[in-house]
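Design job #97: recover the sequence.
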């Protein structure tokens, strides 16, 4: 498999209309088992059988770029990510950063509690989101935490979904950060999942969520404060080639705030 390959089907089932969370769940599995993938590459369809194994990826990565601008990328809101994020943030603060870029592009979501814990680093007290069960009323979900004195930019794209949209909307509507990039995926529901026999998974939508200003995300996405087109995939995460990242760094260096 190569970067840029498109997943056409998973174990014989088309993946073209599946959301990012569902694709991820179907590709993942117990180490030692296999998954059949049909891949589109340069207009051709290719078949692969991939053996799953344990893969430990850095969910949180951080560094300083530009003129004392802190950069933290978060690839998913997986278990334990909030603690790793807080450690990265504190390490950057110890280096006297002038501002921060939080990159959640291509982050398909994860656990709501991890998202809320990450938000608590920036929102002293406020509404993170509203939830509604079937036929029920809106219920606020609040966070109480700290705050930062420097400007913050959150980077998003069309693959930023679910918990990523909760995070970016809360930062945007609580006037804590500017959101930059392209409109997000548009997954405004909260789901629970159960593992079944033979590698199947049951996923049930249990709640809808709304932004702090009671706007819906479902099938609409979140519009950034600053819209910048996606970079060429090969230049993603590089400077100056990644135009979104370059603009985010510039925005922070100029001291712009909501």
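Job complete. Output follows.
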């Amino acid at each position: 498999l190569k970067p840029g390959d498109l997943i056409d089907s998973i174990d014989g089932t088309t993946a073209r209309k599946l959301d990012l969370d569902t694709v991820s769940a179907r590709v993942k599995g117990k180490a030692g088992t296999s998954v059949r993938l049909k891949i589109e590459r340069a207009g051709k369809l290719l078949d692969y059988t991939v053996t799953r194994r344990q893969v430990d990826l850095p969910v949180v990565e951080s560094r300083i770029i530009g003129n004392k601008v802190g950069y933290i990328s978060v690839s998913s809101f997986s278990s334990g990510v909030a603690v790793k994020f807080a450690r990265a943030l504190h390490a950057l603060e110890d280096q006297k950063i002038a501002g921060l870029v939080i990159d959640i592009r291509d982050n398909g979501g994860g656990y709501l509690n991890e998202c809320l814990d990450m938000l608590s680093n920036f929102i002293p007290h406020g509404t993170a989101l509203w939830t509604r069960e079937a036929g029920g009323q809106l219920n606020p979900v609040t966070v109480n935490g700290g705050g930062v004195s420097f400007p913050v930019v959150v980077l998003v794209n069309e693959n930023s979904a679910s918990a990523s949209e909760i995070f970016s909307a809360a930062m945007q509507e609580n006037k804590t950060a500017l959101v930059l990039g392209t409109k997000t995926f548009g997954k405004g529901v909260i789901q629970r999942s159960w593992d079944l026999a033979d590698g199947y998974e049951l996923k049930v939508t249990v709640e809808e969520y709304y932004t702090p200003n009671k706007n819906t995300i479902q099938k609409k996405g979140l519009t950034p404060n600053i819209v910048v087109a996606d970079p060429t995939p090969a230049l993603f995460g590089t400077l100056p080639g990644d135009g979104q990242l370059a603009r985010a760094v510039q925005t922070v260096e100029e001291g712009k705030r909501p």
